[in-house]
Design a protein that fits this description.
With about 120 residues, the chain is an alpha+beta fold. It has one domain: Arc Repressor Mutant, subunit A (Orthogonal Bundle), CATH 1.10.10.10. The chain contains four helices and three strands, in the order H-E-H-H-E-E-H. A three-stranded antiparallel beta sheet has the order 1-3-2. A hairpin with a 2-residue loop joins strand 2 and strand 3. Helix 1 crosses helix 4. About 10% of the residues are buried. The model has no long low-confidence stretch (mean pLDDT about 90).
Length: about 120
């Protein structure tokens, strides 16, 4: 199994969650989202972000508004819809449950390995 591919798949799985969280803070421009996702090491490129934003909009989870810019063309700022806020809250509950489950398994594995080491006299 390719570790890099596994890491990419894990990041893809939580990308929507992260995007919705970023937008939940208030109106946000796509390049600002891209910058935050990149700095958080959630590898994403414009070619991934824009289709995802379109899909989330078509699903009714977010909307956008155009804002005039003094330095060029108008900018599209994304906002969560009421449906998006509910979805994010439910997604957050699922994330917390999943995180607790994974941590429980990891903790048990750690405990098991330490117990084996003690039994071997290490």
């Amino acid at each position: 199994m390719d570790l890099e591919n596994a890491k990419v798949q894990m990041r893809k799985g939580i990308l929507e969650f992260c995007i919705l969280h970023i937008i939940s803070r208030g109106e946000v421009y796509a390049s600002d989202m891209l910058e935050e996702l990149t700095s958080a090491k959630i590898m994403v490129v414009e070619g991934t972000l824009y289709p995802l934003l379109t899909r989330l909009k078509n699903s009714g989870l977010l909307d956008y508004k155009w804002v005039e810019s003094v330095s060029g063309p108008p900018r599209k700022y994304y906002i969560l819809t009421d449906t998006g806020k509910i979805f994010l809250e439910q997604f957050g509950e699922t994330w917390n449950e999943l995180q607790a489950s994974v941590n429980q398994i990891i903790h048990e594995s750690f405990h098991h390995h330490n117990k084996e080491s003690e039994e071997e006299g290490v």
